[in-house]
Amino acid sequence: MSSLPLVFDAPKRRMPPRHLADLDAAQLREVVVELGLPAFRADQLARQYYGRLVADPDQMTDLPASVRPAVAEKLFPKLLDPIKQVACDDGDTRKTLWRAGDGTLLESVLMRYPDRATLCISSQAGCGMACPFCATGQAGLTRNLSTAEIVDQVRAAAADLRDGEIHGGAGRLSNVVFMGMGEPLANYKRVLDAVRKITSPAPHGLGISQRSVTVSTVGLAPAIRKLADEGLSVTLAVSLHTPDDELRDTLVPVNNRWPIAEVLDAAKYYAHKSGRRVSIEYALIRDVNDQPWRADLLGKKLFKALGQMVHVNLIPLNPTPGSEWDASPKPVENEFVRRVRAQGVACTVRDTRGREIAAACGQLAAENA
Ligand code: SAH
After folding, report:
1. Which residue of 10, 38, 63, 145 is surrounded by the most CB atoms within 10 Å?
2. Which residues of the chain have pLDDT under 70?
3. In ligand 1, which atom is closest to the CA atom of 282?
4. What pTM value is reported for the model?
5. In a mutational test of the pocket of ligand 1, which residue from 361, 363, 364 has the highest number of ligand atoms less than 8 Å from its CB?
6. Which helix (H) or strand (E) element contains residue 27?
7. Whose CA is nearest to atom 15 of ligand 1?
8. What is the CATH number of domain 80-368?
9. Which pLDDT tens digit goes with each residue over 112-130?
């Protein structure tokens, strides 16, 4: 199985130029004043970006045309260019491949449901966690994304939904999940900053409810505790994938550093601090982690650690090209669900949006690299 090294510190790559979404309100005012503009322009620009979802100063009609080029240069460098879009599920799922200024590739996926629209975003280009069943994990880590590169994936999707560019007519982006490329807690500061900007009310944020944002992690226990201490009410998802350390050491290599007991302890702390149920992600892999005894053990361990404060999300494995692994047969999956529930733990199977567009974590970027 995987022998890739774990990478916690991103390679020293140049980060993109500063963007409005990298700044807090005071910093933005400073830049505006440096540009020789009256301070009120700061709120106006923030309202354009976070409120009207406009990222191009040429479209900011309340901004004098003469200052637009300077504002564009200092606050709105072009961060992400959509180089490919693919849709499936009758247009209800759309995946975008983005190219950042330095050529780095990243992905986001928009999924529309009758009652909500969820955007899956990337927090890093690539990933250093080396999980062997994950396409992104196999490609390694290129670099961290900047705060603005994370926020702008959300702004762009919210704008497309509002403008009716997604099948189903005009709508509102309601949910954001950090389940695209990267390990969000390995890019902690920028991810946290992005979460605040995604959830703050306009004019200084996109106004999405904290409860509708999910941060998914391989289980960096100290970072989970740190996140708990931020006092947010975002949902934490932990990618457990098996209840025993022996197998988890190979499926999620970071388990060698923070084993299951420590991860569940940190998850318990998060549930306690936030009052939010923790999600446990479990990619069901045929004959690897789908045995009845593992379902029993999973249910037992989770109930002991978290009681009613946990929910298991089973994800039928989306096979990556060249891998010998596959999803479990339906009867095996059903039995797994039944056994987890029998231990008193909520358990559902995630729908499998985007299979035919290679929407499994990192697949589109891998194909285009
Ligand atoms: N690094 C974070 C978030 C990214 S992936 C994390 O690991 O949680 C989001 C979820 O998709 C994780 O649970 C991950 O394990 C899972 N995943 C990755 N590749 C997959 C695949 N091929 N099939 C099913 N789930 C996969």
Report:
1. 145
2. 1-3, 353-369
3. 13
4. 0.95
5. 361
6. helix 25-34
7. 239
8. 3.20.20.70
9. 999 999 999 999 999 999 9
